[in-house]
Amino acid sequence: METWSFVDSGHLSPALNMALDEALMNWHSEGKVPPVLRFYGWKPAGLSVGYFQKVQGRIDLEGVKRNGYELVRRQTGGRAVLHDDELTYSIIVSEDHPQMPASVKEAYLVLSQGLLEGFKELTINAEFAIPEEKLNSTGSAVCFEEPSWYELIVDGKKAAGSAQTRKKGVILQHGSIPINVDENKLFDMFIYKNERIKERARKSFADKAIAINDIIDQPVDYQTTRNAFKTGFEKGLNIELQPLEISEGQWKEIYELSEKKYSSDEWNYSR
User: Fold this and answer.
1) Could you report the per-residue pLDDT of 48-74, keeping only the tens digit for each?
2) Which end of the chain is more exposed for a tag (fewer CB within 10 A), N or C?
3) By its UniProt entry, which InterPro entries does this protein fall under (predicted)?
């Protein structure tokens, strides 16, 4: 059984969360750390937009501020995700790892086994989405509108969303596992032509996405969810997790990256 590093970074700001993911990618690429599984939360809650996603005219920046959230752009593609009451995970592993398929889609299947097992730990019967046709045809800016290949669904509704990028020979897959979702706040951050269309989108979303506490009888919190998915990833990926100590010097590097890149208007709004 292979040993991977485990980082439980708790609740950090959106910019710090993205900086830490990038720093771990860099360190793994340089051979400084083994493959990594990281769990984290967001404080304040954040709206992450995809690498190529347009902010102007799609995201209601006043709505983001009004709700006390912070916007940050991810390294990964896809549409906007509200990170509030959720467990977020990231996996950092080399493309040439013996267990990693070359195709993005098949790598999703391997890495998402950990998610499947994590839901099982919570006695939730999740399964992999296998779309009948190419998705992303809705034109929506909201990520959880549609499941993509091998994302986790429960009763036909999306229960976890993931995104992947590859840089410097390293795969970064990170994703959102909602514990509770406030649909009103979510849709307060997107621009619609009128209130009627917004309300229709909000109702449609409720039919397509689901959070953990919508499914189970006994509500769970962040810590319970974290413990379940830690066990799930160990089972699903057949790994043993060893805590990774991040040094003071490494934290300095993370804070600098957060400040210079992920807190900058140029990165977040001008792509």
Assistant:
1) 999 999 999 889 999 999 999 999 999
2) N
3) aa-tRNA-synth_II/BPL/LPL, BPL_LPL_catalytic, Octanoyltrans_LipM/LipL
